[in-house]
Amino acid sequence: MPVPTTNELRVETSTCCNAACVFCPWPTDDFTRPKRIMSLSTYKFYLDKAIKELGDKLIHTSFSGFGEIFTDKTIIEKIEYACSKGLKVHILSNGSLITEEHIDAMFKAGIADIRFSLHTNDSDSYAKVMNFGNEKFNFKKTKSTIDYAIDTKPEDIEVIITADIVEENKADVDGLIKEFEDRCVLEIWYPHNWVYGKKYRDVNDPQRWERFTCGRPASGPIQLQIEGDVIMCCFDFDNKMVLGNFKDQTFEEIYNGPIFNNIYKHHDNGTCGESDLICNGCDQLLDKSEVVIYNNRVDKELRTQFTSTAVEDFT
Hints:
Layout: E1 8-12, H1 40-54, E2 60-64, H2 75-84, E3 88-93, H3 100-109, E4 113-117, H4 123-130, H5 139-152, E5 158-164, H6 173-180, E6 185-189, H7 216-219, E7 222-224, E8 229-231, E9 242-245, H8 251-254, H9 258-269, E10 292-295, H10 300-303
Parallel strand pairs: 1-2, 1-7, 2-3, 3-4, 4-5, 5-6
Antiparallel strand pairs: 6-10, 7-8, 8-9
């Protein structure tokens, strides 16, 4: 099998987090991986190796994964290094650890966009959803950071706000729209299940299984985890379906291995539900027409079809 026809590499640089969001498996016993931060030298090794192997095919790289990237003291240096390679760099953060100096540095480096996970416009709901356990991480501080980013961003850099709506913040949708719809990109979603981590969406109704594939085996993006493991997608938060390890293998070897071939076969044949893969109960194969509550970016239904958040993938 060929490497997926993606132009994006996502690198998990931290599995540490300062929050314990109610819709996330990270603070639960389901997350068993070590909580670590990738060294700067290791990050450079992986990125250089990916660039060498993928060449001009690699256009986007994202700092994301299963941790808050700004728990990493070298994150700005990593971002600057990725930008120096001519890549379009995408940032995902809860915003609570970011300073105005961080924003200035990222904008100067030339990131493509920064996506803030801000799930409410209300301080009480924020505390309930995020579960920081430390009062220094609060809505007022995070909102101030986001306002600064919106107000100072260069014209060619996007600020994106993503909100997941659960019981604790279900009354805050209108407030989010009023506050941000005319100021930045805003996406408001119902939560997903993290495959095997949560139970927000009912996967037992056979009438809702409308998709043969989520699209990720064929179109990526490539998800590189903190220990070098390559996994099928970011929803596999505990690395239960590892394709190979980029430390010792090439992408070509990994994507021609038996695990990926088996995954690709079931997605191509529409037999995920009959397989022994974790995909057999994944809500990404459900009808997704109602998961987007609000989106001022593109058509709602079109948005659900993309496996990448890279801006130009929507044009």
